[in-house]
């Protein structure tokens, strides 16, 4: 039986603990991740540089095959074979370059420093064990001595998110609704006191009202616990609601990044523009919205040389065929486009 | 084309502690769609919208009410007799990845229904080939490059077009599209919606559109009707743009308030409505179905069930004792 959830307005006001560990900063530099295929090693993420400021929420937006999930997994150094990190570094404050970590040190870093809420949080729980048992497994595998304390912390977190902690810990996954499971996923990511949290498609397959609830929780928990948060999504609306900074991925490249409101209000890269124009809107002239022509590239169809977006681009020039546009900074905004670069410089 | 009156459907829980408990998936839903018309149903998961789509497509039985397809009532007919009628109504599922057989080329996928059609009408193999190419062109695909491919060689958007092409092989009069774009990449979504609108205009195919994403409902045609369904009851209905711009039922207002605001491009509505609790099917059925979650309920709402009605000064039908306009949806920022 689904247990009744409590919506935010009725949430018990939780004590706001002063963050013990300051939110870590993350510097991804020149990261390239390749997958081994019959056609050789193909890059899913190519030469990506991205800085997550301590205490910020960054949103990465991309369509299927853009490399956004691979990029997120790189933060945990968890890219599975046939994939591997081929170049670049991921520096996390207090942890160093995770690309160099391996074995036991890497395992401890996950969970204790980095919490990951997986894309399929709806399906990432063990159907045979109660949530509480899975929590204890997590505690034991990370050598937590005070398991009672862990359970207390878990209940507090669940309570903070509007759930009855004791009942949820006693439940199997099939007894929880999608929105409740998503909150359990967030609890498991935070309960070991991680201060860097990655949420991969946190609201996919959830209803609008549940989605709004989860996004509110993400924002509040982020602020209260002093986190650095990375949200990966295909949905610009999700990023618009939670993220301070927005990064747009296409064909394994970061094509544009900047403060969310600025990027949405005045997108510069032709892909970002097209993507925003393609969103069905509630008001206004419906003929203004337009699908992007063509389709997103896959691992096999990403061009080896030149701009990854050129085949769908209205501003294509000769140089786009041969040269990969560099990511150029203009204040807080970074754009990788020959057409935009030329215009801005002159 | 199709008229549904008072459709009801109740599911009984089968095993477990809830055995025998009844879930009212549909509590008397009325609607009709003309040839080439459009109707959209929106609501949370579990509200009954998918069940309605399955019933209309003939994939699920109904307990009460009547469906008339092109004037012929279905209830008096035996299941076998209903078949040719329901064949005019084709379903487009949410997931284009599982809707196509991965071991068959697109050519093989289209030939199966065409062979049936050819047998029935005594047409040739030549006709089947021509028709396959024709339906692919209708959905904006190039037959030459697509026919020999397997589903995994196509993008999600192309697969959904193939699914629609397959539905068109039987010359349907209506398509039931259940969350048909929610798994399609954002940049391609609008293309599929535009295709549905185009099929309405060019072929006169009616569309029953089922979604939780309200904005997409506008794109299959602004002449369509929007139905907001909650726990099996239609709580608000009217022209798409009227209901979106000026909703009066607190449930519609909650749904619209929950849509993410594109900060930088839009500003949030001034009077967002947040429901008090989340959907709980085990709630008692006395009074308004939304009362427990409604921030504006009063005593009457807890004891009496409001029915879909028209009241003074409200252009759309609604099932609320206290209909009131509230500014809930985001507005475009001026100057952007």
UniProtKB/TrEMBL annotation, chain B:
<feature type="domain" description="ABC transporter">
    <location>
        <begin position="2"/>
        <end position="256"/>
    </location>
</feature>
<dbReference type="InterPro" id="IPR027417">
    <property type="entry name" value="P-loop_NTPase"/>
</dbReference>
<dbReference type="Pfam" id="PF00005">
    <property type="entry name" value="ABC_tran"/>
</dbReference>
<comment type="similarity">
    <text>Belongs to the ABC transporter superfamily.</text>
</comment>
<dbReference type="Pfam" id="PF08352">
    <property type="entry name" value="oligo_HPY"/>
</dbReference>
<dbReference type="InterPro" id="IPR050319">
    <property type="entry name" value="ABC_transp_ATP-bind"/>
</dbReference>
<dbReference type="InterPro" id="IPR013563">
    <property type="entry name" value="Oligopep_ABC_C"/>
</dbReference>
<keyword id="KW-0067">ATP-binding</keyword>
<dbReference type="GO" id="GO:0055085">
    <property type="term" value="P:transmembrane transport"/>
</dbReference>
<dbReference type="GO" id="GO:0015833">
    <property type="term" value="P:peptide transport"/>
</dbReference>
<dbReference type="GO" id="GO:0016887">
    <property type="term" value="F:ATP hydrolysis activity"/>
</dbReference>
<dbReference type="InterPro" id="IPR003439">
    <property type="entry name" value="ABC_transporter-like_ATP-bd"/>
</dbReference>
<protein>
    <submittedName>
        <fullName>ABC transporter ATP-binding protein</fullName>
    </submittedName>
</protein>
<keyword id="KW-0547">Nucleotide-binding</keyword>
<dbReference type="InterPro" id="IPR003593">
    <property type="entry name" value="AAA+_ATPase"/>
</dbReference>
<keyword id="KW-0813">Transport</keyword>
<dbReference type="InterPro" id="IPR017871">
    <property type="entry name" value="ABC_transporter-like_CS"/>
</dbReference>
<dbReference type="GO" id="GO:0005524">
    <property type="term" value="F:ATP binding"/>
</dbReference>
């Amino acid at each position: 039986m689904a247990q009744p959830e409590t919506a935010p307005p009725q949430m018990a006001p939780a004590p706001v603990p002063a963050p013990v560990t300051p939110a870590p900063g993350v510097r991804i530099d020149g990261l390239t991740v390749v997958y081994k295929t019959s056609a050789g090693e193909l890059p899913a993420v190519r030469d990506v540089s991205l800085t997550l400021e301590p205490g910020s929420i960054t949103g990465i937006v991309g369509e299927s095959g853009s490399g956004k999930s691979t990029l997120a997994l790189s933060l945990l150094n968890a890219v599975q074979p046939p994939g591997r990190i081929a170049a670049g570094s991921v520096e996390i404050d207090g942890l160093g370059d995770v690309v160099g970590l391996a074995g036991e040190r890497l395992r401890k870093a996950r969970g204790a420093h980095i919490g990951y809420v997986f894309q399929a949080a709806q399906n990432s729980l063990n159907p045979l064990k109660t949530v509480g048992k899975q929590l204890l497994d997590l505690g034991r595998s990370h050598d937590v001595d005070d398991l009672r304390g862990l359970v207390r912390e878990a209940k507090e977190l669940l309570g903070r998110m509007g759930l009855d902690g004791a009942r949820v810990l006693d439940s199997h996954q099939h007894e929880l609704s999608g929105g409740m499971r998503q909150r359990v996923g967030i609890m498991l990511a935070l309960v070991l006191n991680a201060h860097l949290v990655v949420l991969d498609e946190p609201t996919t397959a959830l209803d609008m009202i549940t989605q709004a609830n989860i996004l509110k929780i993400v924002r509040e928990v982020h602020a209260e616990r002093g986190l650095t948060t990375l949200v990966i999504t295909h949905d610009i609306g999700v990023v618009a609601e939670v993220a301070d900074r927005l990064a747009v991925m296409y064909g394994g490249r970061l094509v544009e990044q900047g403060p969310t409101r600025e990027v949405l209000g005045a997108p510069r890269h032709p892909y970002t523009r097209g993507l925003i124009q393609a969103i069905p809107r509630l008001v206004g002239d419906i003929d203004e919205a337009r699908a992007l022509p063509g389709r997103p590239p896959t691992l096999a169809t990403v061009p080896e040389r030149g701009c990854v977006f050129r085949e769908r681009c209205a501003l294509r020039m000769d140089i786009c065929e041969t040269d990969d546009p560099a990511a150029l900074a203009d204040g807080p905004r970074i754009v990788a486009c020959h057409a935009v670069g030329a215009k801005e410089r002159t | 084309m199709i008229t549904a009156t008072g459709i009801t459907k109740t599911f009984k829980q089968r095993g477990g502690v809830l055995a025998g408990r009844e879930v009212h998936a549909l509590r008397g839903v009325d609607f009709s769609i003309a040839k080439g018309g459009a109707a959209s149903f929106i609501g949370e998961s579990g509200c009954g919208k998918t069940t309605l789509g399955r019933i209309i497509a003939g994939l699920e039985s109904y307990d009460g009410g009547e469906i008339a397809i092109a004037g012929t009532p279905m209830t008096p007919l035996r299941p076998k007799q209903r078949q040719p009628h329901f064949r005019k109504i084709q379903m487009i599922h949410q997931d284009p990845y599982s809707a196509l057989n991965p071991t068959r080329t697109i050519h093989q996928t289209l030939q199966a229904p065409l062979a049936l059609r050819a047998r029935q009408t005594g047409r040739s193999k030549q006709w089947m080939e021509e028709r396959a190419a024709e339906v692919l062109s209708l959905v904006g695909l190039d037959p030459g490059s697509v026919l020999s491919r397997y589903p995994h060689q196509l993008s999600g958007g192309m697969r959904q077009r193939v699914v629609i092409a397959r539905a068109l092989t039987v010359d349907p009069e209506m398509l039931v599209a259940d969350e048909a774009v929610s798994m399609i990449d954002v940049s391609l979504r609008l293309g599929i919606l535009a295709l549905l609108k185009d099929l309405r205009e060019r072929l006169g195919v009616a569309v029953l559109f089922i979604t939780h994403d309200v904005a997409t409902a506008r794109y299959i045609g602004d002449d369509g009707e929007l139905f907001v369904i909650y726990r099996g009851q239609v709580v608000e209905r009217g022209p798409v743009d009227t209901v979106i711009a000026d909703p009066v039922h607190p449930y519609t207002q909650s749904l619209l308030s929950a849509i993410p605001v594109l900060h930088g491009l839009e500003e949030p509505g001034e009077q967002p409505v947040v429901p008090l609790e989340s959907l709980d099917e085990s709630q008692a059925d006395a009074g308004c179905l939304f009362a427990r979650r409604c921030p504006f309920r009063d005593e009457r709402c807890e004891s009496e069930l409001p029915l879909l009605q028209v009241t003074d000064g409200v252009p759309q039908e609604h099932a609320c004792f206290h209909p009131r306009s509230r500014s809930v949806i985001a507005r475009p920022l001026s100057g952007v």
